[in-house]
From TrEMBL:
Residue numbers spanned by region Disordered: 125-155
Listed name of the protein: ABC transporter ATP-binding protein
Keyword Coiled coil: yes
Single GO MF descriptor: ATP binding
Length: 215
C-alpha cells in the first residue's frame, strides 16, 4: 500500500499539528485510543489483535480506522460486536457458540440465523414445559404457583438475536455516556486553566459545556 509518514498518519487519525506537543496524560479517552492505534501501526507488526477497537471513537474516526485496517497487509484478528466493522476489515468470521469456536462461511448473517434458530428452539421448549406443567397442575392450587413461575420464565426468556441486539444497544449507550463524561472533564479543565480575561474564549468553552450536558 501507499506509505505515509507518522505526521500524515496522525492527521488521518484526527490529531492536529498543534497537538503534537500535548502530553498523553492530557488526551481524552478517544484520543488515547487513537494514539495507541497509531503507535501499533508504526511498529508494523505481522499480526494485529484488537478487542473492540471502535470503543471511544466517533463515526468519522471509526471510518478512518476502518480504512486503515482494511488496507493492513498483515494478519488481523478483531473481536467486536460491530458487524459492519467485522465485514469491512476481515475476510473470515468466527463465533463462540456453546463454548466452541465456529467458523461462519456466511459471515455475520449466518451467526444471526443460528441465534434465531436457538431462540426459536428455546421458546418452543419453554412453551412445551409450561403447557406440560399447566396440565399437571390442573385443579391443584398448591401447584398453581409453579405453573405461574414457568409461564414467567417463558415470557422473560431472551436469547439469540434479541439478546445480541439489546446487548449492543446497551454497550453503545454506555460508550456514548463515557465519551460525554470525558469531553465534559476535558472542557472543565480547559476552563479552569483558561485566561480569565479572555471572555470570548471562555464563552466558547461554556457553550461547548452546555452542548455536552444537553446530549
Amino acid at each position: 500500500g501507499k506509505e505515509v509518514t507518522p505526521g500524515q498518519l496522525m492527521e488521518r487519525l484526527g490529531f492536529k499539528p498543534e497537538q503534537l506537543m500535548t502530553p498523553i496524560a492530557d488526551l481524552s479517552g478517544g484520543q488515547k485510543r487513537r494514539m495507541q492505534l497509531l503507535l501499533i501501526l508504526l511498529n508494523e507488526p505481522n499480526v494485529l489483535i484488537m478487542d473492540e477497537p471502535g470503543n471511544d471513537l466517533d463515526t468519522d474516526m471509526l471510518a478512518v480506522m476502518e480504512d486503515l485496517l482494511d488496507t493492513w497487509p498483515g494478519t488481523l484478528i478483531v473481536v467486536s460486536h460491530d458487524r459492519y466493522l467485522l465485514e469491512r476489515v476481515t475476510d473470515q468470521q468466527f463465533a463462540l457458540i456453546d463454548g466452541k469456536i465456529r467458523h461462519l462461511p456466511g459471515g455475520v448473517d449466518e451467526y444471526l440465523k443460528i441465534m434465531e434458530d436457538y431462540e426459536r428452539a428455546n421458546m418452543q421448549e419453554s412453551k412445551a414445559d409450561f403447557e406440560a406443567s399447566s396440565r399437571a397442575v390442573a385443579g391443584d392450587s398448591s401447584d398453581a404457583d409453579s405453573a405461574e413461575k414457568s409461564n414467567q420464565k417463558y415470557e422473560a426468556k431472551l436469547s439469540g438475536k434479541a439478546y445480541y441486539d439489546a446487548t449492543r444497544r446497551v454497550s453503545a449507550i454506555e460508550r456514548k455516556l463515557e465519551k460525554l463524561e470525558e469531553e465534559k472533564n476535558e472542557i472543565e479543565q480547559k476552563m479552569a486553566s483558561h485566561d480569565p480575561s479572555d471572555f470570548v474564549g471562555l464563552q466558547e468553552l461554556n457553550e461547548k459545556l452546555q452542548a455536552n450536558q444537553s446530549e
